[in-house]
Description:
By secondary structure, the protein is an alpha/beta fold. It contains five helices and five strands; from the N terminus they run βαβαβαβαβα.
Amino acid sequence: MAKTILVVDDSASLRQVVSIALKGAGYDVIEACDGKDALSKLTGQKIHLIISDVNMPNMDGITFVKEAKQKAEYKFTPVIMLTTEAGEDKKQAGQAAGAKAWVVKPFQPAQMLTAVSKLVLP
């Protein structure tokens, strides 16, 4: 059975690029356009990994990760932040919220897939 990855980004084109790469590697993908939308999609189903942008309307990625980690089913779900933010303070906030990796845009799909394969839950 394919593993499911939640992709959260307010850019539809970026979600599409990430989804195509992930689906090509054999993953199932759920897309969300911001943190609020993503939280509404965390309905107890198994999510093996979350890839989230940082800067989004309605709810930013770091707030979303903190809230997702409050849910028992997603407490241990690994998170990759995929963002234009390269600042150390943002990275530390991301790590404090529970992010396991930080990939800076523009990114190579192969680089992202390597991070995904290392972190995705069994």
